[in-house]
Amino acid sequence: MNQSDISVRLLGTDQIQGLAAYLTAAGLPTQDLLQPGRMFYSFHRGETELGYGGIEGSGRTRLIRSLVVVPAQRKSGIGTLLLRALERIAGADGAQSLHLLTTTAPDFFEARGYEQRDRSQAPKEISSSEEFNSLCPTSAVYMVKELGDINSVSPQVTRLHGRQ
User: Would you put residue 8 in left (φ > 0), alpha (ψ -120 to 50) or beta?
Assistant: First the structure.
């Protein structure tokens, strides 16, 4: 499977429950899903649900708010494709770097170009986020990726119920 096989749908606020259920099952935070500044996406191949992801913020520095692959699709390489789609979405919207916190998948992200950094190195727009300050434990690994030329190609995103 390649990236062109995957459709990306921007979730409306009425579709956040599906995302929340998968995040909860994966032990990921859900308390701030409806807060402003977060964009969440569902990923599908045809009608088959593959996973969800989110980006928080605007401007050149963004936070990957979440990335979860549905259980039936795990261990198939889907996670890499979903991460690449999130990177392209953010890059096409002007982001130059993506930041994240993880307690469960530092090896996954490191293998895909993310670098571990000390939390004290996080820029203000990241360090002041709710995820950084209260949703993720201080033991979460802080990671960064500079997007570089990824900005040149963006996946086609379908808007569902006009969430902005």
Answer: beta
